[in-house]
Amino acid sequence: MMDLLGACHTLLFPVQMLYHVIRASLTSLLPSRRKDLAKEVVLITGGGRGIGRHLAKEFAKQGAKKVILWGRTEKSLKETAEEITLSGAECHYFVCDVANREEVYKQAKVVREKVGDVSILVNNAAVVHGKSLMDSDDDALLKSQHINTMGQFWTTKAFLPRMLELQHGHVVCINSILSKSPIPGAIDYCTSKASSLAFMESLTLGLLDCPGVGCTTVLPFHTNTEMFQGMRVRFPQLFPPLKPEVVAQRTVDAVRADKAFLYLPWTMHALVILKREDMSCTGCEKNLESFGVDEGADRNPDVKGAPT
């Protein structure tokens, strides 16, 4: 019976892939109504560097009224804010550790008083320590969960009520394809991102009956940022690391199109399908290897929890 089911899944795989190819092609060809950002106040956690920095620049480029940066390092926040201000957009920054619940609530109040109501919240802040479970420090493991997962609870609780009241808002999560198909050597990151994905799936469903408020979850492949310096890809010509500016541009486009889930690149749909077909550990590892993801994170001395 299991062999028969396996054969059926194997036969269905090319059909599913054809569906995603056709869907991606039609989506790129058909015009869609895009949200105007001219009145939007965007807050980005982890906004001083990496994908967060590029998100801030892209939202400003596409016409956001105000951009607000949150992060733990004032130097990088200030540099990014100055760059965006020079481009002609209004940008503010606040030092805030999203892992600290009370600090999040306090700074959220400051933002409302000094800048105004946040209409687009981008939960981007994340860390990775790149070690196996037995080599991981307990405090480092807790740090990953507090920033990557619990931080979303605090920021969303801080800003979502006002969005619901105004019937206008959007919650964005920069997640990872590793939330769907984890790899060894980054157990803290994979676990926290899987929890983050469950949070967003539940939130997205919960907001379906809330007019004017939506969600977008972005699941990118390995992105070329400081956080994943040294991570090896088995077939770099076939699966090159994503550029953070591309992730940012596609994310803003997805928000403006009210797209709930975005896989980058679109071929990552295949990885999710393969994962669904074979839930054994060996099968999962083989699926990842077939997509060129190696387990080099735990052997990379440069991965030390740098935030995005």
Walk me through this protein's architecture.
This protein has 308 residues and is α/β, with parallel strands linked by helices. It has one domain (35-279): NAD(P)-binding Rossmann-like Domain (Rossmann fold), CATH 3.40.50.720. It has nine helices and seven strands, in the order H-E-H-E-H-E-H-E-H-E-H-E-H-E-H-H. It has helices at residues 2-29, 50-61, 74-86, 101-114, 138-166, 187-206, 244-256, 268-277, 281-290; strands at 41-45, 66-71, 90-95, 120-123, 169-174, 213-220, 261-264. Strands 3-2-1-4-5-6-7 form a seven-stranded parallel sheet, sandwiched between helices. Helix 1 (2-29) packs antiparallel against helix 8, helix 4 (101-114) packs parallel to helix 5 and helix 5 (138-166) runs parallel beside helix 6. The model is unreliable at 24-29 and 279-308 (pLDDT under 50). Its main location: membrane. Its EC number is 1.1.1.300. It is a multi-pass membrane protein.
The SSE order reads HEHEHEHEHEHEHEHH
Radius of gyration equals 19 Å
Oligomer: single chain
Helix content: 40-55%
Low-confidence stretches: 24-29, 279-308
The first-level CATH class is given as Alpha Beta
Strand residue content: 5-15%
* CATH topology type: Rossmann fold
- Main β-sheet, spatial strand arrangement: 3-2-1-4-5-6-7
Shape: globular
